[in-house]
Amino acid sequence: SSTMRLDDEFGALMLAEETKTLARQIDENEFETVAQAADAIRTLLPSTHINVQSAILSDVGQEREINEDSGMILKIQRHAVLDRRDLELYVVADGMGGHEGGEVASDLTMRALETHLNAKSAIDWNDNVAVKNALLEVIDLVNADVVALTETPRYKGTRAKPGSTLVFALRLGARVFVGNVGDSRAYNYSNGVLERISKDHSYVQTLIDRGEITEEEAFDHPEGSVITAHIGFPKLKTRDVFLRLFKAGDKLLLVSDGVTDMLRDREYLPHLNDNPEAVCRNLVDASNAAGGFDNITVVCVEFS
What we know:
- By secondary structure, this protein is α+β, with helices and mostly antiparallel strands.
- The protein has nine helices and eleven strands.
- Strands 2, 3, 4, 5, 6 and 9 form a six-stranded antiparallel β-sheet that branches. The protein has a five-stranded antiparallel β-sheet with strand order 1-11-10-7-8.
- The longest helix is centred in the middle third of the chain and has 23 residues, at 128-150.
- The radius of gyration is 20 Å and the shape is globular.
């Protein structure tokens, strides 16, 4: 159901990136023995029980008067004949629009996400394509709700319309679907390596994609605050959903730009080798120490 590139027969498949990488390695004969291939496959097999610990922390920062960020950790367990599911939802939303606008938009973004996800009771949660399509639809519904907010009498005549970024992670066992609109980010911290999962929807990211600037130059670029997509945009087309597999020892991070604008990716590393509560506190403190120019929100999930 997706466009397939001729030079990458696995890229369009709705599989986790870890699975695609393994498929490419087998296809290109990178394993010398069957045993090596079997070991690689074994690393992708989830254990019978996957446990997680999670934490969230939000801070106004050093320069803002109010906190327009919102964050949420939600666990859903339903065991009924017509609807049986166990899932967890982690969310960070960074509001924009000024006093009594941004915080309203980010809160509505979270509440709408929960409402529309709960309405998807007919999804086959084992079908990756079905889940991805449902999440893209949910993002569109959330966006429509925030657009409707901007058309109410309170905000219709304002120049700075309420809006919000959105990054969320839906955990189904070892599978994690990450969705994002805007420049709040999701990361995977595994075996001492921090990897960005989401991709910013921003002007600076466009320059990186064109090869006009490097990641290092992007960090303090004067146009770094310009985003190209957000929740509340009437003609929203840009939104992403990624599928990843997490294993014991991995950490999932969701952060607002109060972290990403203060810390380079490599500067996260000294703060991540701790329990989720401490990781959240460490990153908030480090962001504040680096200037704290914006609101700061961190969600950390540890897999075991």
